[in-house]
Design a protein that fits this description.
- The protein is built from 3 helices and 26 strands.
- By secondary structure, it is mainly beta.
- The strands form 6 sheets. The protein has a 6-stranded mixed sheet, with no helix packed on it.
- A hairpin with a 5-residue loop joins strand 11 (100-102) and strand 12.
- The longest helix is centred in the middle third of the chain and has 15 residues, at 128-142.
Length: 305
């Protein structure tokens, strides 16, 4: 089943095939002289927004994201209020616009962006602090990507906990779901916040900060669960927000943050991004929990399917 990148824009939910996405980045400053564009790895690409009303200009905020994708043969940066995660879209029906479908949760699934109303009308933020943040981000993605090195870790999923951004390899991500009802269970390690039923199966939910003993920075609002899985283990990571996917190359740029995550569980730190080793996390014996009480059995080990 095709995986899709879900995102929000203008209060509506959309999805694009993951195969059509090159990367997702946080909003950066925009070159207005080139007709609303950004310099992405040495290449000037236009920034466009889904805009049913061609006369309305898209108001840019520092919390917005850009989805690097294509319209036909041309690469573009598509505005998004937020990236919601990566899942398979089910139960679709024909949409009002040719080339679109509507999922059961009313997500608009776009198979071809060229059929959508797109606008280059962009309204830049005027406050000094936001402009400084966007300019700093723009400098980080402006340099040409002229390295011939192989991609060491082809794809990662970025997410945030408080003010800190993390990532894990996509090959271990089964799906990303909304946080549902969490049932606390006594007598289990403190890093397991509780259990939840996902597609008829009991999944333990892990707070990475408690697992690694990381001091809590910023308020958290666990509204997403990243389901990690391999041939023997499955559990969920509680996170605040999904930041999107990107490709990871070595050598890494200088790290700008520190972390208490041990080297054994760390792929590296890319600027402000802390990349966790999903394989090591899934094989950590601390994650194996078997606790029996009167209401539930937590069985984080699983048999190969």
């Amino acid at each position: 089943m095709t995986e899709h990148l879900r995102f929000c824009e203008h209060g509506k939910k959309y999805a694009l095939p993951l195969s059509s996405i090159r990367s997702t980045i946080k909003m950066v400053t925009i070159d207005g002289e080139s007709g609303a564009s950004i310099l992405f790895h040495g290449k000037q690409i236009p920034i466009l927004a889904l805009n049913p009303d061609a006369e309305e200009r898209r108001q840019i905020r520092g919390t917005d994201c850009l989805i690097i994708t294509r319209v036909g043969e041309n690469e573009i940066a598509l505005c998004a209020d937020a990236i919601e995660g990566i899942t398979a879209v089910k139960g679709t029906r024909q949409g009002e616009i040719t080339g679109t479908q509507i999922a059961d949760d009313e997500t608009i699934v776009i198979s071809d962006l060229s059929v959508m109303p797109l606008s280059s009308g962009i309204e830049l933020p005027s406050d000094r602090e936001t402009k400084a943040i966007l300019e700093r981000r723009a400098r980080l993605i402006a340099l040409p990507d002229d390295s011939d090195e192989k991609i060491t870790y082809p794809e990662i999923l970025r997410f945030s906990l408080g003010y800190v951004e993390y990532a894990v390899e996509m090959q271990y991500v089964r799906e990303v779901i909304l946080t549902g009802e969490i049932t606390p269970v006594p007598g289990i390690p403190s890093f397991i916040t509780g259990i939840s039923v996902v597609r008829g199966r009991i999944i333990s939910l892990v707070d990475l900060r408690k697992f690694f003993g990381i001091p809590e920075m910023g308020l958290t609002d666990f509204n997403r669960v990243i389901i990690l899985s391999d041939s023997r283990m499955t559990f969920g990571l509680l996170v605040d927000r999904i930041r999107g996917t990107s490709h990871l190359r070595k050598p890494f740029p200088p790290a700008r943050v520190e972390t208490q995550i041990p080297q054994s569980h760390l792929i590296g730190i890319v600027g402000d991004l802390i990349v966790i080793d999903g394989k090591t996390l899934l094989n950590d014996e601390s994650m194996v929990v078997n606790e029996q009480d009167n209401t539930a059995t937590i069985q984080m080990k699983m048999n190969p399917e």
